[in-house]
Amino acid sequence: MTMSSLLRCSRFTRTANAPILSRPLHSHINKTRELWTHTRCFQQWQCLRVDGQSGSAVMRLFGHARKALCLSAARGSKPSKVSLKFLIGPAALTVTARAFINVAYCQEDINNNVPVEVQATEKTPEFHWTVLWEFVRPQILALLGAVILAFGAALLNIQIPMILGELVNVVARQMREQAGSYVRDMRGPAFKLLTLYCIQGALTSGYIVLLSRVGERVAADMRKTLFASLLRQDVAFFDANKTGHLVNRLTADIQEFKSSFKLVISQGLRSSTQTVGCFVSLYMISPKLTGLTVVVLPCLVGAGAIIGSFLRQLSRKAQEQVSKATGVADEALGNVRTVRAFAMEDRELQLYSVEVDKSCEMNEALGSGIAVFQGLSNVVLNCIVLGTIFAGGSLMAGDEMSAGDLMSFLVASQTVQRSLASISILFGQMVRGCSAGARVFEYMSLEPSIPLTGGGRIPTESLIGRVDFMNINFCYPTRPGHHILKNLNLTLPSSKTVAIVGQSGGGKSTVAALLERFYDPASGVVMLDGLDIKTLDPSWLRGKVIGFINQEPVLFGTSVLENIRFGKPEASDAEVISAAKQANAHGFITGFPDGYNTVVGERGATLSGGQKQRIAIARALIKNPRILILDEATSALDAESESVVQEALDRATTGRTVLIIAHRLSTIQGADLICVMSNGHIVEAGSHLELLSKGGLYAELIRRQRSEGKK
Ligand SMILES: Nc1ncnc2c1ncn2[C@@H]1O[C@H](COP(=O)(O)OP(=O)(O)OP(=O)(O)O)[C@@H](O)[C@H]1O
Fold first, then answer.
1. Residue 645's closest CA among 557, 582, 598?
2. Rounded to two decimals, what is the model's pTM?
3. Backbone angles phi, psi at 193, to 5 degrees
4. N or C: which end of the chain has fewer CB within 10 A?
């Protein structure tokens, strides 16, 4: 979009019930509008209601609008309309903005703390033919072949009623004249008809084979491209989108698109060719009867289409209800241990039953609707046949038509009916296919603000491993008004252990997330060996430099060997075993009947917490990271497992830069530096003894934990 078109479409309108704006405010908004058009963020603004706001309040309002849009962009949606209700002082102000989002604004500094209520209406994703073309292009020859074969089959279908008519004429002549050989007269048209049937069958199989090849390959390419795009997205994107919703796009949406694509090409082409062709045939057989058909048929097909669309709506709702019920079952079965632990089986069953009963009711209603529709269609179709015979018979009586012509007319008009009905169904299918395709394309074109790769790398031999957090301010993109880190300054000296402590929810893990570059700070820099990590290759940083072990290690449902090798795919078996030994895991792994080939179950469900944690440590150690982050690595374990894991961790931290995030202060007393976090920044730093002697917040935390321990 050019700057001039942006300026053209930028406008403010006052709605009927909006109070008259004061002059200074008007000019202020105009200035702001200029600002926005220049930042290329907005396509159109509509200021609906402004009650006695000061200029600066309006400026803040625009700031919030921008943040809301950034938030939506981080969630992966591009809203066309965002309604914001701001409560600034006593007055309320409502603005509706039509937005053209520039995703780059996700990283804007977010510093305002005005209470804000945001409702974002998600824009329906758009279907882009150019994107589809990119997927179809490699299959174009097969697709053209399919189109030609389908067209050929449709042309043959048009011939069939005429030849049937010829056959009936032979029979009628035989009955009338009783002369000549029946078999000889029938042979010609019968042979012709048989040949047509065979060719038509061959063409039909041909185009179905080609189309399913095209459809499957296009769908496979789409799946791979969408999955690659999803894997590339920012962590913030996954904060904002449910996994089930994303998986649905990869599975159900692509499936729906593929079915529609195949159906629209094969049936659409066939039905439209047949409709046109058979209409020509009808006209050639009997212009009078065709005139009658032209009046009656569209009315009936139109009525059928209306009822059909009602039934489709009903079917969509029933399907939604089925997936709702599936969602309940999915959640319960996926969290079966929690359900069992709370003895909630009956409640889950009840929830599921309610949803299943609703879906049953809807499907029953749908079934009744379909039954009525089918019954009516049968009556109507038979009436059409009756009407055609009636009208055709009177034409035959007047010698304007032969019996064969009437037969041809009947078959051709039935073909037209079927084709028109299938076109009306296909239209709905096409709409559904396009919206499924649009949902798939939406995430394909989404560019992450933090790329996966690209940027500099520090050679391993010169990597020191010093980390500096300088003046960091940060809010999570999903909660723009909630400031987690405020002017945080922290240094992790090379080969030293730094522990961060502080109240729960204070932002300790957020510091680790910024070092991993899961998010970028709103302002300030994170430096590795004096280089801004934004200039370094994120995949190198995460894959080679930093080892991350957190409270709830997630393992993949494969073998122990593969899980450890996840840290370094090229590692030999000997390296895996050595990492397992360092992590105190070799003993229990070799105790399993299948040793390193033991499959650990979904998310490592067949292992104990301590065993999972030690495999996670081995997975982190196998890449020999310069920096190790231990985020509450032992807090989920019992005392016995904790001591085994702690022993592994103590061994792992030697010679590395280590950042420990801990609740239990007893585990970090040996750290070189302990930093106490409060209110988003570091308020105290020093060794355990120094901090104790100061008698500040750390001493208070120690005192509290000791008294809790005693209780
Ligand atoms: N992905 C996220 N999106 C939005 N807010 C988040 C996200 N992760 C954490 N938060 C919020 O950020 C704040 C800091 O969370 P963080 O996990 O950094 O705290 P913490 O100090 O490590 O807490 P704890 O000691 O309980 O683990 C919390 O208020 C939390 O609700």
1. 582
2. 0.69
3. -65, -40
4. C
